[in-house]
Write a structure and sequence with these properties.
- The chain contains eight helices and eight strands, in the order H-E-H-E-H-E-H-E-H-E-H-H-E-E-H-E.
- The protein has 200 residues and is α/β, with parallel strands linked by helices.
Length: 200
């Protein structure tokens, strides 16, 4: 679920009347907010039956589907913006999901929890256990997050796929800052989340 600070940032990156796909839209709160504030033509895809039901009760156009399998059904350049917020780490094929997003969208907005955040590192170093935090709220045995990564990992993946990062932001304890040097050691160390705007 997208937090309020990320929600406001995402909204600022979207134009009025854009055609938007929200992958892993959960209960539809972000889509609903964007429809009300930006008058977007919104569509969502969500794997959870409950999430789809809650979204539809808000009057949203949301289908039940799996990002790993169902993005291939969309034609090229269908959307002005494709959003993947706090979902990439829960996919089985993150590299393929990124490729599909860039195929069907002119611009992609990705939000990822940063496993390289200093507090997470200390939890592993001093307690010897996988971190359980506000961003990573489930214990290791029940978490849907199967491909956790750091900001640096994500940037390296984009580089390997020749994906251009147009802009990058970091969320540092509920404070969004624009990243001037995405691969900076401090960005990886001090950020709970990374937000990236990608193009082909």
């Amino acid at each position: 679920m997208t937090n309020k600070i990320n929600q406001n940032l995402i909204s600022s990156l979207i134009n009025n009347n854009d055609k938007v796909l929200d992958i892993g839209c959960g209960n539809g709160d972000l889509l609903y907010y964007l429809e009300k504030t930006k008058n977007i033509q919104g569509q969502g895809i969500e794997i959870s039956h409950l999430g789809v039901k809650e979204s539809v009760t808000k009057g949203l156009s949301v289908i039940q589907g799996d990002a790993d399998e169902d993005l291939v059904s969309f034609t090229d350049n269908t959307f002005d913006v494709v959003i993947l917020s706090d979902t990439l780490q829960a996919t089985h094929k993150p590299k393929e999901v990124l490729k599909q997003m860039l195929r069907i969208g002119k611009k992609c907005i990705i939000c990822i929890p940063n496993f390289g955040y200093w507090k997470y590192r200390l939890q592993i170093l001093f307690y010897g256990i996988m971190p359980v935090t506000k961003t990573l709220s489930e214990p290791w045995y029940s978490t849907p997050n199967i491909h956790l990564c750091t900001i640096k990992d994500f940037i390296n993946l984009c580089n390997s796929l020749n994906i251009e990062i147009n802009k990058a932001y970091r969320n540092t304890q509920n404070n969004i800052k624009k990243i001037q040097k995405p691969n900076s050691y401090l960005n990886n160390l001090l950020s709970t989340e990374g937000i990236f705007i990608l193009t082909k």
